[in-house]
């Protein structure tokens, strides 16, 4: 193995390690805690090191989102597979929670306020097959599967409801504090009420 | 009447005129058309005049939103009064259209991207009784009235649906072009499908 190759591998390992530490930092203390100094402290490295790996904060944030795409993809797959098991309200709530609790999501206000960053993140998500339209789509597919399982009424338009629910979650990500944000129990109650309203046999 | 009094009145008239011209300009050509130069041309005044009335663009934008609050209030009142008439889907669509077509709304991307402006607009709307939580509330009240009119099923949670529909509209205002925006006919179809799903006797 050439020294150049080792160096590239070491850089890749360091990059992955910094991203993982950044995700832990955000998960524990929120997006505002993600400073270069705090990240260096979390990772136990020199303060200047993150700057050598990521050209700027945009590159770091985009890398964090990229690393989160696997988790979001898994949450989407789990939602569709959950059709016919548990309760519809419970399945929707588990998906909503995974979506809203993602460290990538904690960065959404920052991403949204910066047009260049927003475009970079949208491109990254799109390339990973998780662009914004993936969310209405996966909710529609889940509701279609629940129709087939006999738990959503046949007359319900699953595309309309997939879009309504995805829009509500997306709005919670990007809306400021002026918008009324429900507590998690209130969100669960709302999604359960939605599931009840569209249940078969109502 | 003292000259000072006349001058204040003339300034107020000029201010109101500039706001009205700004609203017409936005309604006709979109938010990006609102430049000081274009506004002066629209109002037929000197290019420097808007700067004498509005300290900066934030002040102009906040004044436009303030002027729109009456229209939004009227749309809310009309929605609640429409319960029991026409169709539920049609009433929701008329409200959604009034909300999304408001010139104040055309400015929402700009407002959202600027934290200070966002706060100023939120305060203005809140003071006018039209803060963001007014929208889930008015939709809930409308659905309650439709329940009483026998057109929404008794088991439907109108707070959940008021929040879902308001969130979907709010998300359309603030989400970027990455988010899938329905055409107006698709929006009407979606709201009609929602109304069908929660209709009494389904």
Give structural notes.
The structure is a homodimer of 202-residue chains. Chain A folds into 2 domains: 1-54, Arc Repressor Mutant, subunit A; 57-197, Tetracycline Repressor, domain 2 (Orthogonal Bundle). Helix content of chain A is 73%, strand content 0%. Chain A is built from 11 helices and no strands. The termini of chain A are far apart. The model of chain A has no long low-confidence stretch (mean pLDDT 90). The A-B interface holds A 112-113, 115, 118, 122, 126, 131-133, 136, 153, 155-157, 159-161, 163-165, 167-168, 170-172, 174-176, 178-180, 182, 189-191, 193-194, 196-198, 202 and B 112-113, 115, 118-119, 122, 126, 131-133, 136, 153, 155-157, 159-161, 163-165, 167-168, 170-172, 174-176, 178-180, 182, 189-191, 193-194, 196-198, 202.
Secondary structure layout plus pairing:
The structure is a homodimer of 202-residue chains.
Chain A: H1 3-29, H2 36-43, H3 49-53, H4 57-81, H5 88-101, H6 103-106, H7 108-112, H8 115-127, H9 134-148, H10 158-174, H11 184-197
The best one-word shape of chain A is elongated
| CATH architecture descriptor name of the largest domain in chain A | Orthogonal Bundle
Q: How many β-strands of chain A, per DSSP?
A: 0
Spell out the helices and strands of chain A N to C.
HHHHHHHHHHH
Overall pLDDT of chain A, averaged?
Answer: 90
How would you sum up the major sheet of chain A? none
User: What structural class should be given to the helix and strand makeup of chain A?
Assistant: mainly alpha
Q: What's the number of domains of chain A?
A: 2
Number of helices, where a helix is a run of at least 4 consecutive DSSP H or I residues of chain A: 11
Just give the CATH class of the largest domain in chain A: Mainly Alpha
- Find the CATH topology of the largest domain in chain A: Tetracycline Repressor, domain 2
User: Low-confidence runs of chain A (pLDDT<50, min 5 residues)?
Assistant: none
């Amino acid at each position: 193995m050439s020294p150049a190759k080792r160096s590239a591998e070491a850089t890749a390992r360091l990059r992955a390690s910094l991203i993982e530490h950044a995700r832990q930092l955000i998960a524990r203390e929120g997006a505002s805690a993600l400073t270069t100094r705090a990240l260096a402290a979390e990772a136990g490295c020199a303060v200047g090191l993150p700057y050598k790996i990521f050209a700027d904060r945009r590159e770091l944030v985009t890398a964090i989102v990229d690393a989160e795409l696997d988790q979001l993809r898994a949450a989407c797959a789990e939602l569709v597979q959950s059709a016919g098991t548990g309760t519809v309200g419970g399945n929707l709530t588990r998906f909503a929670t995974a979506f809203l609790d993602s460290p990538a999501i904690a960065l959404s206000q920052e991403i949204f306020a910066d047009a260049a960053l927003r475009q970079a993140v949208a491109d990254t998500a799109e390339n990973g097959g998780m662009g914004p339209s993936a969310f209405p789509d996966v909710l529609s597919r889940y509701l279609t599967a629940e129709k087939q399982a006999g738990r959503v009424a046949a007359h319900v338009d699953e595309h309309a409801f997939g879009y309504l629910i995805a829009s509500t979650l997306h709005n919670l990500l990007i809306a400021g504090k002026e918008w009324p944000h429900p507590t998690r129990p209130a969100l669960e109650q709302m999604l359960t009420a939605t599931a009840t309203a569209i249940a078969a046999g109502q």
